[in-house]
Write a structure and sequence with these properties.
3-stranded mixed beta sheet, Spore Coat Polysaccharide Biosynthesis Protein SpsA, Chain A, alpha/beta, single chain, 9-stranded mixed beta sheet
């Protein structure tokens, strides 16, 4: 059965929430005065979620935290703990990389235009467009539209960085709808000059199909509800994929250009299938910068709706993870990647396969693990192909510069 996705602020909740549709349960983001504090699964009865169930569920799950927030509000008044306390104005460029998903792009842009504070500019990068559908959508909004003819999400990210006029680059994807406070929350940690990148909280936009619910349960992009700061002191750079997702990331423009963070044949549209964000985070940590994960920067991702799409996604994620590890070894001479890859295969893939075979409770379905393992086995070939294409692109770019 479908699960209704809700966004509930306990500070403002004053009655039952009406839910239209065939829902028996709801997955609710719980906030206190705009600040996310956790998630709850709530029952839906007679097309409503009762205020009593919300309050009781929150009391059991977040009782101590809520008590401290209530005391804070009593002592310090209206401004205490409010989300807008972090919504600093920020001169930034938001870059939306897209390819042939006009409906998703419309939803993404409409959400971005509600941002408070607004970004300095929104850039839509149309990656190897098959037709003019994306251009027509972009023409209906106050955005800059640019085309990157080389197919691949990383090339689109690089194109967006070159087009941007601001020093901070906020990246999101066309299948994402950001919160109104996302821009301000993503910019705030950059007051520290040591912060090279920021990631945010990514939750499910909808869980209308069993596949979408499975994606959120077994994969998901959330990194929790506590702000975290990652450096080489508390994280190995080869594990940098754990800091967050490219669907919600911000980086300093000088690092994107100076370290050539996205000038590699990685991610969607390439043989590697994914991994462009993880490798960028790896390079940032490796070069001595910090990465901050902030759950106050909320956005909503439209998970894949069909089983076939999910299996393809799982395969692609594995190809990307191991392509990045091969790159760390071959290009960066970082042999900790070998240990990380072997450990991940044993502790994640093999362990999940055994749990699935034994039919353990909450085991990841075997077909999901099988797709991931197929991706692992395909990764080395994918890495070699991406390096070959990357060199060809570099030669072609050099020739173009000579002719210009």
């Amino acid at each position: 059965m479908p699960v209704k996705v809700l966004d509930i602020d306990l500070y403002r909740a004053s009655g039952d929430i009406m839910v239209q549709g065939p829902y028996h349960s709801a997955a609710a983001l719980i906030r206190w005065r705009g600040v996310p504090i956790g998630q709850l699964k709530l029952p839906v009865s007679n097309q409503r979620v009762s205020l009593t169930s919300i309050q009781e569920g929150a009391r059991k799950a977040f009782g101590r935290l809520l008590a401290s927030r209530v005391v804070e509000a009593i002592l310090f008044g209206e401004e205490a703990g409010a989300a807008n306390a972090k919504a600093h104005s920020c001169a930034c460029s938001v870059i939306v990389c897209t390819r042939d998903r006009p409906d998703d792009l419309k939803r993404c842009l409409e959400a971005l235009l509600l941002s408070e504070p607004p970004p300095a500019e929104i850039i839509v990068v149309d990656n190897a467009p098959p037709d003019g559908a994306t251009a027509r959508v972009a023409a209906g909004y106050p955005v800059r539209y640019v085309v990157e003819p080389r197919k691949g999400l990383n090339w689109a990210r690089t194109c967006g960085a070159r087009a941007a006029t601001s020093d901070l680059l906020l990246y999101t994807d066309d299948d994402v709808a950001v919160d109104s406070g996302w821009v301000g929350a993503m910019c705030e940690p950059f007051v520290d000059p040591q912060v090279g990148a920021v990631t945010g909280l990514v939750l499910a936009l909808e869980m209308e199909t069993p596949t979408q619910e499975a994606f959120e349960r077994y994969i998901g992009f959330s990194r929790g509800f506590r702000e975290q700061r990652f450096t080489t002191g508390n994280m190995s750079p080869v594990a940098a994929g754990n800091v967050g997702a490219g669907a919600s990331m911000a980086l300093r423009k000088d690092l994107v250009k100076g370290l050539k963070l996205f000038e590699s044949e990685l991610d969607c549209g390439t043989a590697a299938c994914s991994g462009g964000d993880a490798y960028a985070f790896y390079r940032i940590l490796k070069n001595g910068f910090a990465i901050v994960y902030t759950p106050t920067a909320v956005c909503w991702h439209r998970h894949r709706r069909t089983e076939r799409e999910l299996l393809t996604t799982l395969y692609g994620y594995s190809v990307g993870v191991y392509s990045v590890l091969f790159r760390c070894i071959a290009d960066d001479d970082d042999w900790t990647a070998l240990r990380a890859g072997l450990g991940w295969f044993a502790n994640h893939h093999v362990r999940n396969a055994i749990r699935g075979l034994l039919r353990r409770p909450d085991a990841i379905p075997l077909r999901y693990t099988a797709s991931e393992i197929r991706g692992v086995l395909a990764a080395f070939s994918a890495y070699r192909k991406t390096r070959r294409i990357e060199r060809e692109c570099a030669r072609a770019y050099a020739v173009d510069k000579e002719l210009a």
